UniProtKB/TrEMBL annotation:
This is Adenosylmethionine-8-amino-7-oxononanoate aminotransferase. It comes from Dermacoccus abyssi. CDD domains: OAT_like. It is found in: Cytoplasm. Pfam families: Aminotran_3. Substrate binds at W60, Y158, K290, G322, R405. Keywords: Aminotransferase, Biotin biosynthesis, Cytoplasm, Pyridoxal phosphate, S-adenosyl-L-methionine, Transferase.
Length: 446
């Protein structure tokens, strides 16, 4: 293929495209990706020079198998020969049916006396899956004389950018405070104490405050929604599984539903297939996305039990949601191939990332401008004491051989599962370089 005119394309990008979380009139620096293979991106500068770097972000956590994956390519190509799309209203097809079977098969194992997740609603993005999950919860109570219309969650969370999911994102520190007063008013329990094994006194204090808030509004609450174990875009915080168990107990005591948003945590990212597996809780509704298709196509899903599906259907007649690209055959075929790849040693390999990431990143705790270093499964996070200089951090990481996407005070990595030990070492060197690039002037080497 001819070499692209990168300078012209970047100029046109600035003139006509609006990137996520960015100003249209004062855009951040955008880099040109020419191709990708395995865990690597090939970037090309506007002067024509190219370089290959590791993608430490897995393209916002979805490209778990890397890029240009033979098995996923083959699945997409084979499905293209049959059909790329057909409406899901009144029609069905083999990839969707097989994906439904597979999702039910790999769903978190049910607790004793709890129904298994046996019904899948195929959505078209993670945010939409949360929208659907919240609709499900609200529809369960919609026909009651006193319908429940409130959702309880914890501070520090992030659940998407569409309107209803924004209402359960952190109302103060999140990205959606601009919409305060417009969004539905939800209930926010305190920020859980940090760490997989929280301080017992802090945990008990959190439980008392949370229980008091819940019981005050119990008759209004339709559901509790959380990102189990790891809060993603809200702050990359790791918290105690006991917090999730406690919230689940409160919800079930008062007849509310439990929703797990595993869009970021599922498919092996936190060290087990689902974060729910480590917690030992089966939610009533499970949202999944991102890694579902290995980053090839946009797709998400919402899982629930037959009992819940029957309740919604009998009370309100139908699930009132229907995306145009719901059950897209091409996405379903690639999702099946991506899940099959996780049945190999790849899932075990991802679980082993934590030790490597911790070994490489732990020394950064000694830096005065580093507030915390934390790892969980294939997630490594360095939190600074001040906001990241994104341009400086990104440039330093690229010079060290990896692409990162810092935000607020966080420099972090969620690498593809196909990274070798050497790749992980390079990624950690890049994170380290980015951290040093953000040091205050008083800490800079002379």
């Amino acid at each position: 293929m001819p070499t692209p005119d990168v300078a012209r394309l970047l100029a046109s990008d600035r003139d006509h495209l609006w990137h996520p979380y960015s100003s249209a009139t004062n855009p951040a620096t955008t880099r040109f990706v020419e191709s990708a293979h395995g865990p690597r991106l090939t970037l090309r500068d506007d002067d024509g020079a190219s370089r290959e770097v590791l993608d430490a972000m897995s393209s916002w956590w979805c490209a778990i198998h890397g890029y240009n994956v033979p098995e996923l390519n083959a699945a997409a190509e084979a499905q293209l020969q049959r059909m790329s799309h057909v409406m899901f209203g009144g029609l069905t097809h083999e990839p969707a049916v097989r994906l439904g079977e597979k999702l039910v098969e790999i769903a978190p194992a049910p607790e004793a006396d709890r129904p298994k997740l046996t019904r899948a609603f195929l959505a078209d993005s993670g945010s939409v899956s949360v929208e659907v999950a919240l609709k499900m919860a609200l529809q369960v109570f919609a026909a009651d004389d006193r319908p429940r219309r409130t959702v309880l969650t914890i501070r520090g969370g992030y659940h998407g950018d569409t309107l209803h999911p924004m209402s359960v994102c952190d109302p103060d520190g999140g990205m959606h405070s601009l919409w305060r007063g417009t969004l539905p008013q939800q209930l926010f329990a305190p920020l859980p104490p940090a760490g997989l094994e929280a301080d017992p006194d802090e945990l008990e204090a959190w439980k008392r405050e949370t229980a008091s808030l819940y019981r005050e509004h119990a008759d209004e609450i339709a559901a509790v929604i959380v990102e189990p174990l790891l809060q993603g875009a809200g702050g990359m915080r790791i918290y105690d599984p006991e917090c999730v168990r406690f919230l689940t107990t409160l919800a079930r005591e008062h007849g509310a539903l439990v929703i797990f948003d595993e869009i970021a945590t599922g498919f092996g990212r936190t060290g087990t297939y689902w974060a729910a597996d480590r917690i030992g809780i089966t939610p009533d509704i499970l949202c999944l996305g991102k890694a579902l298709t290995g980053g090839y196509l946009t797709m998400a899903a919402v899982l629930c039990s037959d009992d819940l599906a029957r309740t919604i259907s009998e009370r309100t007649g139908a699930m009132m949601h229907g995306p145009t690209f719901m059950g897209n055959p091409l996405s379903c075929a690639v999702a099946l191939a991506s899940i099959d790849l996780l049945d190999t040693e790849r899932l075990t390999r991802a679980a082993e990332f934590a030790d490597t990431l911790d070994t490489h990143l732990a020394p950064l705790r000694e830096l005065p401008h580093v507030a915390d270093v934390r790892t969980l499964g294939a997630v490594g996070v360095v939190e600074l004491t001040h906001d990241v200089d994104v341009d400086a951090a990104t440039a330093a990481a690229l010079d060290a051989g990896a692409w990162i996407r810092p935000f607020r005070r966080l420099i972090y990595t969620m690498p593809p599962f196909v990274c070798t030990d050497d790749d992980l070492g390079t990624i950690c060197e890049a994170v380290t370089a980015a951290v040093h690039a953000c040091a205050p002037a008083s800490e800079q080497a002379p």
